[in-house]
Amino acid sequence: MKTLFWSLVLLSQVQPGPVWTGSSAPQRNPYGPVDMDDGGQGTADPYWRLMTLADFLDTAEEELTATGVGEPFGVSMRLSEPTVQSGLPISSAFAFVTLSVPGADIGSGELSIVANSDTGVVNFRMEIVEFDAVRILDLDVTLSGGVLLEWGTLSVDTGATTTTYSGGWVYTHADGLSTHPDSDEGFHDEAAVMFHVILPEPERKGRSLRAPPLLSTIFAHIGNIASHLVVSIIDAFRPYTAPTSCSGPIVYNGAGQSCENAFPCLTILEDLCLKIDEIPDVSVAFKKCMKGRCGCGGSSHRRLRISCDDASDCGSCGSVPGCSNFGATIWYCENNNLECRCAGIVFHEMTHSCGIGHSLEYTLNPDCDIPNDSACQIGEMFEDECIAASPNFEEP
To answer: Of 239, 279, 225, which Cα lies nearest the Cα of 2?
Structure first.
């Protein structure tokens, strides 16, 4: 099996609220929506607390996307496919991580979560070794009474000294995101250094500090990773079966253009999703995620949301035909009516949303003509499947 790398591109997302052109996303919890404080409703599913937390993290990311979370910044992470240990009540997932900027690796380390199905608490830990210091971010992610809290420590070891800061974020649907008022001075500055961002001065809002846009981006990405790994743990208990019926991704309007006139592959996506089982050299966990993204069932991963946008400024990625930010939202930005080209872009970006990123060779030369780049190969596979299913296809 090829070595596959998960990729988290730390690019903020600036979009208006969605205008749905497809059906609403289904609840991922097969036992129905459950509140964390429901007194035990839904406990037929032992993972209901963790599924509820994962859904809330995804919703927070969607809301931050809708309101705009800052300007893009171009650092990325490549993660090895995680090792998952599922159990009750404690489950865990572990991966190696490489931090990079275009054309160069600048740090490496490891990422892990430990999830408690009894309490619904997820511990998130990321350690990055760079030339100047070793930084360890250790957060507990909790949800109670509609309040999402990421709280913990960030330690910085320069070799000469070790300094540990406490801090975190608070998120509610009503009030949005704020930095926790009890955060140590320096916690968020060091988080920005760890993620290679430059912080603007925050605005004050009541007792807490209104989270500046780039810190919102860090919060959203931590949530994306935690949610994805939690759902991967839950999916590990599901037996894999090839998809037999798929509803396809959800499509909605973005900032640049309406999907109604700019998304030519909507009708064929459901049929192409049935080909997920044929993807070569990938893990069962990856196929389960793709099934969830395609609305095929058999996975707790959220159904993919496709936003149409301008090719000149695609989502948060700039002038590209498609954009993914690791979460369940992708942007489609190709300005033509080529159905199979559209399908290839969608599955390429869907691949990123399920964790497979580009190779280091691609970061040096961003072109899908390079060999052995899994995201490119999967996109091209589905473009070819689309062509084979279109008897009247004419090469442009």
So the answer is: 279
Phi, psi of 391 (to 5 degrees): -60, -25
What pLDDT does residue 65 have?
64
The answer for residues whose C-beta is within 8 angstroms of residue 109's C-beta and 6 or more apart is 96, 97, 99, 126, 127, 128, 129, 134
Confidence of residue 329 (pLDDT cuts 50, 70, 90): confident
Rounded to two decimals, the pTM is 0.79
313, amino acid identity: D
Work out the burial of residue 116: count CB atoms within 10 Å of its CB; fewer than 13 is exposed, 13-18 middle, 19 or more buried.
middle
Instruction: Decide if pLDDT at 35 tops 60.
Output: no
**DSSP conformation class of 318:** B
Question: In 72-157, where do the E strands start and end?
Answer: 75-80, 83-85, 90-101, 104-116, 122-129, 134-144, 147-157
Cα separation, 201 vs 207, in Å, equals: 16
DSSP H helices in 168-275: 187-194, 213-235, 266-273
Considering only CA atoms, which of 60, 61, 55, 85 is closest in space to residue 292? 55
Where does the pLDDT of residue 294 fall: very low under 50, low under 70, confident under 90, or very high at 90 and above? very high
pLDDT-above-70 percentage for the chain: 74
Q: At what angle do helices 213-235 and 187-194 cross, to 10 degrees?
A: 70
